[in-house]
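#struct-pred
JK: can someone run the complex with adenosine-5'-triphosphate? inputs below
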Amino acid sequence: MNTQGVIAIYRQEMARFFRTIMESLISPVISTSLYFVVFGAAIGNRIDTVEGVSYGAFIVPGLIMLTVMTQSVSNASFGIYFPKFVGAIYEILSAPVSYFEIVLGYVGAAATKSFIIALVILATAYAFVDLPIAHPLAMVLFLVLTCVSFSLMGFIIGIWAGDFQQLQLIPLLILTPLIFLGGSFYSISMLPDIWQTIALFNPVVYLISGFRWAFFGAADVPVGVSLLAIAGFTALCMGVVWWIFRTGWRIRQ
Amino acid sequence: MPPIVSVRNLTKTYASGFQALKGVSLDIAQGEIIALLGPNGAGKTTLISTICGIVQPTSGTVTVGGHDVVRDYRAARALVGLVPQEISLESFERVINTVRFSRGLFGKPRDDAYLEKILSDLSLLDKKDSKIMTLSGGMKRRVLIAKALSHQPRVLFLDEPTAGVDVELRKDMWAVVASLKAAGVTIILTTHYIEEAEAIADRVGVINKGEILLVQDKAELMAQMGRKELHIQLGAPVAAIPAVLAPYALALGKGGESLIYTYDTKAERTGITALLSDLREAGLTMTDLATRQSSLEDIFVGLVKERA
Ligand SMILES: Nc1ncnc2c1ncn2[C@@H]1O[C@H](COP(=O)(O)OP(=O)(O)OP(=O)(O)O)[C@@H](O)[C@H]1O
Ligand SMILES: [Mg+2]
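RT: done, structure tokens with the ligand placed:
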């Protein structure tokens, strides 16, 4: 195992994060605060409580998930796409690092960034609302799994993308709708029956539901199912990454 | 001693279907400097990239230090440093950080003293904390060299290291190469500058259209294939070459003031003695004589044309 190599990649990626600390941290904080103002204050006045939780508190897990998912994908996809774009990838490919180590470095760093962002948002949320955390360990577990699996997904997108447009394409066309329709700002039990059924085909619903359960002890779908869903998604992404590296797809000519 | 790099029947067909390497075999001895010459698109970069692990071979084998570059890639790549042809750097990074990154990537523990020594050898020490985007093209190229040297490779590939580099700097780089060679590092460089190969290489390989045309000791190559020209400066210009001198196939210099005789250095008789006495016979006077050895460039152009 080339530990030094993994650390080198990890540090380089984290340095990118801290170099752009403004965009990296401040912007999620600002957008989260805006969501609070818009949803918490404006809508929250009309929706008193959801499943016994004040609406302001209710949206926090969804907000965190929303940010973690988009940030993981964008950080991880950019992290591997950029060296590909400027050609600096030659060094990774010619170094004595295994595929596993490359993924560990890049995805590890992207997941760390998302995790930090999640904590910052959580801290910001406490400035606005009282927030109980019923199952702290489960909360961390869901968070970590989401950070890792969506960073893996971002890594795949970054390798697949042939230009900057494609890099934005999947997040824009697939991810954002899934996340917004995944119950970030509402409980799917608030939807008409037919939409509830449709929503169950959206994998993001399971993640947000499970994460929300960790906070409030109540969920749209059984927490075991949520856990299975996130574990399955992580495994799927790992499988795709493994296949990419085994075949050299879009990396080694 | 077994070769440090051994390439056997290597072929590479890109996904486009283009065959860039057509069965290349090449052994590189430990500690030598070998220059690969070849026109654009000859396959030099493809060959180097395959040895370094960036391009997957279609068939054939490559070993570095006895380690197969595919099966035993970790051991093979740990020995190799690569300076790519294109300047491929992340522009927001600082020089010292990118060099540290390279060293770590190759599994070496941090050693800033050593890295600063490299930067200093490459006259980059004062740029250590500069962002790469603020450097000139020549400096960026030196950063690439520093990165490749950061992990103390035993084999160094330089893919056109002096393209776009001024004469002064080129000399500096040659000095760095010479000191690496003294330290026992094997160096493979590709170049379009024949004088570069002539100046620093021990052996020269000529590659064209994915095939190695020849690999030979530089001095041997020049001696074997070298032609010399004898320039005879005349006392008084002539309008045409006198008929008695026809057997020598002379060329008339500018303004008829000189005669040029081309001869083969490896021939048993160069014909110079006979020529000189025939010149006197023809009533011509000489004021000066000079010889010129044909360069690798002439040889190279001849080879590529001949086999095209
Ligand atoms: N990724 C690729 N896909 C398809 N063809 C390629 C690819 N890379 C290189 N080639 C082709 O392979 C041939 C050899 O290219 P290569 O870069 O090895 O040449 P070279 O000798 O390094 O040339 P130069 O002196 O211009 O650097 C060229 O015809 C090139 O077009
Ligand atoms: Mg090239």
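RT: quick notes.
Chain A touches chain B at residues 2-5, 7-9, 11-12, 15-16, 19, 82-83, 86-98, 248, 252-253 (CB under 8 Å).
Residues 55-86 of chain A form the longest helix (32 residues).
JK: thanks, will look after standup
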